[in-house]
Amino acid sequence: MVFNSCFDIIGPIMVGPSSSHTAGVVSVGKFGHDLFGGVPDSVKITFFDSFAETYQGHGTDKAILGGLLGLGTDNPGIKHAFELARQEKMNVSFQLEENCPYYEHPNTLLVNMENRFKQIEIGGVSLGGGVSKIFLINGQPADILLNSKIDIGSIRQRYLQDRR
Amino acid sequence: MIGMDFHTIEELLQLCQEKEMTIGELMIETEKQKTGKSSDEIFDLMKERLLKMKEAVESGIADPSPAPSGISGGDAYLMQKYKEKGNYMTGSLMVDAMKYAFATSETNARMGVIVATPTAGSAGVLPGCIFALKENTDIPFDRLVMGLFTASAIGYVIANRAFISGAAGGCQAEIGSATAMASAAIVEMRGGTPEQAANAGAMALKSLLGLVCDPVAGLVEVPCIKRNVIGTSIAFASADMALAGVESRIPFDEVIGAMYDIGKSMPRTLKETALGGLAATPTGEEMRKKILGKPCLKRA
């Protein structure tokens, strides 16, 4: 089961306009931010299928940047994510593709995050109602629901061979 | 069925009967068991959401300006003016529901803060119904919070057995689910039985089966906002039918199954890609070009 709580249905409290194309994507970005351990110097984002067709209208681009900058779903700053990214000197590029080769769902994206020391790539899917899942970390299949408690330390250990 | 959890409407009704609880009360018990939180904590979290909904409604009515796209906005204000004139046909409750649904969905289109119920695209239906009941009856505030628990239990089953996003299942998965949730909530808030609530939900969802997701320019505005508004009328009509004793001839679980099958067989062009339906009409295409400065990315 993907939806585990009454607050997965009545919620999230979020900046509009779309729970799947905005809030769910903020969560993927926020996970990326936390996994990376801060704001990356450079991000490459690939939108697939429905995301690729409608990202502008739904603010999906602002949503992913907002999340990567560490903002939560109800943060009004998401509206100004491009400006905030510039202030943080985060280099941003977008790519649009038809179908995601790693996960069969219309609302999928890949996020590549980089700085001088590391590079991490995650794949996320927005399942509806603001609930999302991470299905890929650095080429390894993953299955991390973002509406449950997340232990970033153990995820790093498992997927990034983090020896710290 | 593990402990208090439920996966179908049938199981939900069975549990309500065994425990002699309403659907809303049972949802709180389930949440308690899953999270270890107290009833009060859970109730307060839901109350916080209702208060956020109230803020979204208030800011929506107060702001008659158009959304950044220019294709929506100002209609909550028009409904407010119309209500004040007093010459409406459907009645105060219905007109208020329309007004509050407009207000929430317009706030959503402006990238304001709303509560997804179950999604942002369908966030207008439930607050529309709830605040209309608040305005037109003497229902206590806590009972409105309980209505949100009823609604969430219905949405919980639908989301886990079918879908609640337009991209996965079309608009029937969003407005259909929201309207079913709202109508079941209205029944319980009005003192109806869990069975009546389930019948209302089934009738509401049945009347929206097959509805496609075809947003102009991919924006959650045209036709999404007005579908939220109309959803409130369907929710109240279904609730009234159920409270009168009318039953759905097809059980709610089977209606949810049908919604899933229909969504699976819907073409990609009609599932939130903005490639078909109203999005592909000459006027829809014209709006897309004007707003986004481009034709469709890819013709499917």
From TrEMBL, chain A:
A Gene Ontology molecular function term for this protein is: 4 iron, 4 sulfur cluster binding
Asked whether the keyword Cell cycle is assigned, the reply is no
Q: Which GO terms describe its biological process?
A: gluconeogenesis
Cofactor(s) named in the record: [4Fe-4S] cluster
> Keywords assigned by UniProt?
4Fe-4S, Gluconeogenesis, Iron, Iron-sulfur, Lyase, Metal-binding
Catalytic reactions of this protein: L-serine = pyruvate + NH4(+)
Q: What is its EC number?
A: 4.3.1.17
Protein's UniProt keywords contain Iron: yes
Q: What's the superkingdom here?
A: Bacteria
Q: Which residues form the Serine dehydratase beta chain domain?
A: 5-99
Q: In which pathway does it act?
A: Carbohydrate biosynthesis; gluconeogenesis
State the similarity comment: Belongs to the iron-sulfur dependent L-serine dehydratase family.
What's this protein's name? L-serine ammonia-lyase
> Which source organism?
Siminovitchia fortis
TrEMBL record, chain B:
| Enzyme Commission no | 4.3.1.17
Q: Which InterPro entries match?
A: Fe-S_L-Ser, Ser_deHydtase-like_asu, Ser_deHydtase_asu
Q: In which pathway does it act?
A: Carbohydrate biosynthesis; gluconeogenesis
User: Transmembrane residues, as ranges?
Assistant: none
Report domain Serine dehydratase-like alpha subunit positions. Answer: 18-279
Cofactor dependency: [4Fe-4S] cluster
Record has Ribosomal protein as a keyword: no
Q: What class of enzyme is it?
A: lyase
Going by the entry's taxonomy, the superkingdom of the source organism is recorded as Bacteria
Biological processes annotated in GO: gluconeogenesis
Q: What is this protein called?
A: L-serine dehydratase
